[in-house]
Amino acid sequence: MHEKIAQSIAESASEIIGYGVLVTDENGTIIGCSDVRRVGTKHNPSVEVLRTANPISTSKEEAASLKGVKPGYTCPIKFFNDLVGTVSIAGPPDKVTRFGLLVQKHAEMMLREQNILEMKLRREQAIRDLAQSILLYDKTEDKRGILSYARGLGYDLECCRIAVILEIVSQPEKDEWDFDKILRRIRNFFTERKHLISVVENFQIVLYLALSCPSDTGEMETTAARLSQSLLEDLENHGIVALAGVGLEAHDFNELSRSARAARMALHTGKLLEGSPNAFDGAQLDTAAKRVHSARELVLEILLMTLPKEQVPNHIEQILATLRNGDADGELARTFLVWCRNPFASGEVAQELTIHRNTLQYRLKKIKEIIGLNPWDFHDSFLLWTALTLQQVGQEKTD
């Protein structure tokens, strides 16, 4: 029995019955007491109770002949039929004996609750270790150990087909981040127990989803993105604002690990492109900002993030140096990036920018005049797009 739970038993029982209470370990040593000065001393009546497994009363005369013993009633504490200690009530035996069964059951109930809590905590830690192991898996390692460990926890990782990474941006009680509560809500959203969901490092939550979708059709990633969006909306209804990164479809354990890393990279890259805040920084998330970022949709942006740091500033400077002089407020750059998403639908682009189509064409021509790159030429357009994209994410990359 832990000293902390023993002290809690002694204090709570004493408060209930109004008499002093002590708790001993399996050797009869006091490990919890309403009078903390007695902790660490031997309690002779408890030694006898532990020997016989039967409760005893200690009269005033008997107590006087024993060192450090008060009159009272002492009974055993059993945990799954094992003697783990005793609980003793100080006071006239004829008055405190009637509380014996109550205090005994109270102590045994608190022990059971503590045991259940510890089992839950150990399981949660085991699930967290498993989730982290998948995320950090190196294909040179033997995956059989991880797969076996997962089966022991009730998860078949061969059924997990795609990974999603969540990052909580804000919640109602900003100073008390209760990830247990958030985890319960997420797990309740995905009602089937086959999904592996856990907190991992950097205050992120990983979801290894076992979705039943046809392979190699793109439906897996589309479904994961749709579910992620619905989950974020459900969380926001409860005051929890989050962002999500969706990985790539996985066909085996190795690909599941890559899917998790792709999801984390998609989340990281998407946050930089949207200018979304990090957890705990106190900034507000733009209501118009995209919340779900797909690794498939951001494949080029993610690829750019892998460029050597020393090459990025040179590329940005070569392409954008002259544009900055003629685009102080960034209007031309924003126009170009929106246009890149749908260059063959000028009307839709102009509508998104809330400008006239002629204004759109004017701005694109203005870009060509300033930097000498033709927005209608694929090669030139790609150079400009990479430079602008790297500029968006470059501050974090060069820090």
The global form is elongated
Low-confidence stretches at least 5 residues in length (pLDDT < 50)? 395-399
How many beta-strand runs? 10
Provide the β-strand percentage band.
5-15%
Spatial ordering of strands, largest sheet: 2-1-5-4-3
Helix-strand topology string: HEEHEHEEHHHEHEEHEHEHHHHHH
Provide a compact summary of the structure.
The protein has 399 residues and is of the alpha+beta class. The chain has helices spanning 3-17, 44-52, 60-64, 93-96, 100-135, 144-152, 179-189, 219-237, 253-274, 299-305, 312-326, 331-341, 346-353, 357-371, 378-398, and strands at 21-24, 30-33, 56-58, 72-79, 82-90, 162-170, 196-200, 204-209, 241-246, 292-294.
Give me some keywords for this one.
399 residues, alpha+beta, Beta-Lactamase, Alpha-Beta Plaits, Arc Repressor Mutant, subunit A, 3 domains, 5-stranded antiparallel beta sheet, 5-stranded mixed beta sheet, 15 helices, 52% helix
Describe this structure in words.
The protein is of the alpha+beta class and 399 residues long. It folds into three domains: 3-110, 2-Layer Sandwich (Beta-Lactamase); 136-305, Reverse transcriptase/Diguanylate cyclase domain (Alpha-Beta Plaits, 2-Layer Sandwich), CATH 3.30.70.270; 312-398, Arc Repressor Mutant, subunit A (Orthogonal Bundle), CATH 1.10.10.2840. It has 15 helices and ten strands. It has a five-stranded antiparallel beta sheet with strand order 2-1-5-4-3, with helices on both faces. The protein has a five-stranded mixed beta sheet with strand order 7-8-6-9-10, with helices on both faces. Strand 1 (21-24) and strand 2 (30-33) form a beta hairpin. The chain is elongated and about 105 Å long.
